């Protein structure tokens, strides 16, 4: 199913979504799908150049804008919220897509677990966990005030099945799963049952961050780790960004109105396969 097929199934006309990490491969596809469904989309970006390139890809009946913001700088997030409210009048949803890893938070032949630097671990936890918590505190406030809204966190398969070597990222994304469940209960019970919080856990998708880890671009082949991943993915391939969109749009739409607090794997069967 391609992007056009997916977006035809949903209508978000008149709704406004904030997307962090929206200049990356996966979250830019999410933003593009929302624009294709008629939504207003505010993409937070630290880089003006990346923001412009992402905006150029948007096509649909909705409207997208780039808003300067850093998920770890609350003052920039408050300014972004004010700009978005001024532009679109409200906020109906938030995708917490900002995240990433640090090579020094991953064990390797020249870096053992016992020598892993504290600052690298802090970087990964801050970017992935605080980088979702802070935007939620700020962008969910208008949703609480209007009594409804939806938050979608981006977890990872490594939160469910911790990957060898990738200690920092796996643990940080496991925190996202816990945060998703906790926040879903807190918002529904303390504020409104029409405030929903869910997450998607992508399996293995080729992104700029993992391309060199999983592939040998010059030879057009897979690395040993890439081959191992494919061998443990029953569908026998890496995911395409479009593979995420059905789950994403469903979780953001009224079609999932009675769904909150779940983490949906989109992984080609990786999490179901025991290896034998």
Secondary-structure content class: alpha/beta
CATH class: Alpha Beta
Largest sheet: 7 strands, parallel
Question: What do we call the CATH homologous superfamily?
Answer: NAD(P)-binding Rossmann-like Domain
Strand content: 15-25%
How many domains? The number is 1
Query: In total, how many beta strands?
Result: 9
Q: DSSP helix count?
A: 10
CATH architecture: 3-Layer(aba) Sandwich
Helix coverage percent:
40-55%
Low-confidence stretches: none
Specify the overall morphology.
globular
Task: Specify Rg, calculated over alpha carbons.
Answer: 18 Å
Q: How much is the average pLDDT? A: 94
What is the straight-line distance between the termini?
Answer: 30 Å
Q: Any idea of the CATH topology?
A: Rossmann fold
Order of strands in the sheet with most strands: 3-2-1-4-5-6-9
Query: What order do the SSEs take from the amino end to the carboxyl end, as H and E?
Result: HEHEHEHEHEHHEHEEHHE
The gist of it:
This protein has 276 residues and is an alpha/beta fold.
Describe the structure.
The strands form two sheets. A seven-stranded parallel beta sheet has the order 3-2-1-4-5-6-9, with helices on both faces. The mean pLDDT is 94. It is built from ten helices and nine strands. Helix 4 packs parallel to helix 5 and helix 5 (118-146) runs parallel beside helix 7. The chain has a single domain, classed as Rossmann fold, CATH 3.40.50.720. It is an alpha/beta fold and 276 residues long. A hairpin with a 4-residue loop joins strand 7 and strand 8.
